[in-house]
Amino acid sequence: MAVLVLVDHDGSAVTQPTRSTVAAAQKLGEVHALVLGARAAAEAAAKLPGVAKVLHSDAEQYAHGLAEPTAALLVAMADGYSHLLAPASAGGKNVMPRAAALLDVQVLSDISDVVDADTFVRPIYAGNALATVKSADPKKVITVRAASFDPVPAEGGSAPIEAAPTVDNPGLSQFLGAEIVKSERPELTAARIVVSGGRAMGSAENFHIIESVADKLGAAVGASRAAVDAGYAPNDHQVGQTGKIVAPDLYVAVGISGAIQHLAGMKDSKVIVAINKDEEAPIFQVADYGLVGDLFKVMPEFEAEIGKK
Amino acid sequence: MKLLVPVKRVVDYNVKVRVKADGTGVETANVKMSMNPFDEIAVEEAVRLKEKGAATEIIAVSAGPAACQEQIRTALAMGADRGILIEHDGALEPLAVAKLLKAVVAKESPDLVILGKQAIDDDMNATGQMLAALLGWPQGTYISKVEPAEGGLKITREVDGGLEMLQLKLPAIVTTDLRLNEPRYASLPNIMKARKKPIETLKPADLGVDVTPRLTVVKVEEPPKRQAGKKVGSVQELVEKLRNEAKVI
User: Fold this and answer.
1) Which of A147, A156, B3, B218 could form a disulfide bond with A132, CB atoms 3.0-4.6 angstroms apart?
2) Which stretches make up the Electron transfer flavoprotein alpha/beta-subunit N-terminal domain (chain A) (predicted)?
3) A50-81, pLDDT tens digit by residue?
4) Can you tell me whether residue B40 is helix, strand or coil?
5) B164-179 pLDDT tens trace
């Protein structure tokens, strides 16, 4: 039986976590992609290698990813599929457990590996343990930890696009608006380099030190929970167990002590750099390169040095 | 408005958990247990709604072993009015908990259920959404703001890249994110008072719910350990290493 992937997109491009989800889904069967919203996004999904068919609907009720109509649609489509997957994004995590409960199955959240059609690995306790679990449910509903799967390329396929069915909108919730920060910087979970600041930044104004280095490197900006709690950075910058899980090629932790909950969000990065004035900070235990020093002195030097060819 | 707030007993968030040597789970014997931090935020929000006059009664409910009474008492000390313990000694998955809570909702008829977005033990992030599904209620997950509004609730959600505002019909389910509030510490007089507040004890069978797990734990293991690397002496050395050794910039 085929497997269905619920696609996250920005109206035109498919997100990188979705491409990672397609990579995970390929291990389970023929992949069909469900795209709700703009036609351009369906066309982008049709180009993903490994996608055999795209199902598309631009019905108004799906326009804002509301959980109730989206889960109802997944349930209406579930008969033809052994597995329903979505990236473990804010959207996927909102919708998939709802669809799972309607199907009377236990959702498998945030999987980091596929062992076989019934068996999956998922981090528990903030990534301090990995549980391999086997599901006895007839159908699996899954969210995928994108950082654990290499994404399929954005181009290379040419799948047909068909219309997804329309189901009644339960009309329980209504979209009022959104405040989405438009940024030139890459998205945190997709960036090749991430520069993050912690509580030691001292203020929201001082965060420009991080932003400035990030821009030099073409990097995304992250923050520890402590920095978010202190109001230095917005919540969607948060890297950690309760924020975003990232695994870039290079992660630069600036003034971050390295609490367990932060490490959970970044320890799968390929190379970790820690800059901290406390040489006993736990972040140094996971860093490939550590530099002990005052960030307000080190960061301007770092920015100047990377500017040199 | 009557509020139901489920609270979960979990390993305290400051404890560094250890995987059991036999790979069956993590060590929970003789480990400090606490209320799940996101559930504390849920209790706090409920208490604030009551203090504002928007809520009339708060019921704290927990499912698990008898010791979950401690977490219910904490909720009562923070300001909940009464507790319900659904006593069960085996594993409870989010689907089973959602079914138990659905039965409690049928009994108590709350207008709003406030849950933590995620428990820090199994990290499932599912119970609220599953309960909303089973009840056919709207869900507002990962909220940073909730206010009663004409015809229901206005909520602000934390989503990728920013915030989203929704209107929910009541009855509804919401799940809390970090920035919703900062939970209070219970004062000693309130801890004393909480001892006198009633806790009703039920069993899953009393609610007619089958809680048999759907997942079997094949094994639990430690993630691969990262080795600490080296300290560099200067910014120049750091950039040189990143360029020529790690080749990441």
Assistant:
1) B218
2) 3-179
3) 999 999 999 999 999 999 999 999 999 999 99
4) helix
5) 999 999 999 999 998 8
Do B168 and A292 lie within an 8 Å CB cutoff? no
Rounded Cα–Cα distance for residues A212 and A186 (Å): 14
Interchain pair A132, B214: CB under 8 A? no
- Which among B10, B129, B120, B130 is positioned nearest to B74, based on CA atoms? B10
Paired strand residues for A113: A121
Domain parsing of chain B, residue ranges: 2-244
Q: How far apart are the two ends of chain A, measured CA to CA in Å?
A: 53
User: Looking at domain A2-163, does it have CATH number 3.40.50.620?
Assistant: yes
The torsion angles phi and psi of A39, rounded to 5 degrees, stand at -60, -35
| Helix intervals (H) in A135-254 | 208-217, 225-229
Reading the block at residue B74, the tokens are 């904490």
A96 vs B contacts (CB less than 8 Å): 129
Q: What is the pTM of this model?
A: 0.93
Pick the CATH number of A188-307 from 1.10.10.60, 3.40.50.1220, 3.40.718.10, 3.30.750.24: 3.40.50.1220
B142: left (phi over 0), alpha (psi -120 to 50) or beta: left
Return all residues near A244 (Cβ < 8 A) that are at least 6 apart. Answer: A188, A189, A222, A236, A238, A265
Using CA coordinates, name the residue in chain B closest to A143.
B124
CB of A61 closer than 8 Å to CB of A76: no
**pLDDT tens, residue by residue, B11-48:** 998 888 999 999 999 999 899 999 999 999 999 999 99
Whether the complex's predicted ipTM is more than 0.90 is answered with: yes
* Domain B2-244 of CATH type 1.25.40.10: no
Beta-carbon separation of B19 and A129 below 8 A:
yes
Chain B environment of A127 (Cβ under 8 Å)? 223
Inter-axis angle of helices B37-51 and B69-78, nearest 10 = 30
| Residue B65 Cα distances to A125, B8, B10, B212, angstroms | 19, 11, 11, 15
* Integer Cα distance of B60 and B63 in angstroms: 10
**Beta partners for A253?**
A196, A274
Quickly count: other Cβ atoms within 10 Å of residue A168's Cβ. 9
User: Domain limits of chain A?
Assistant: 2-163, 188-307
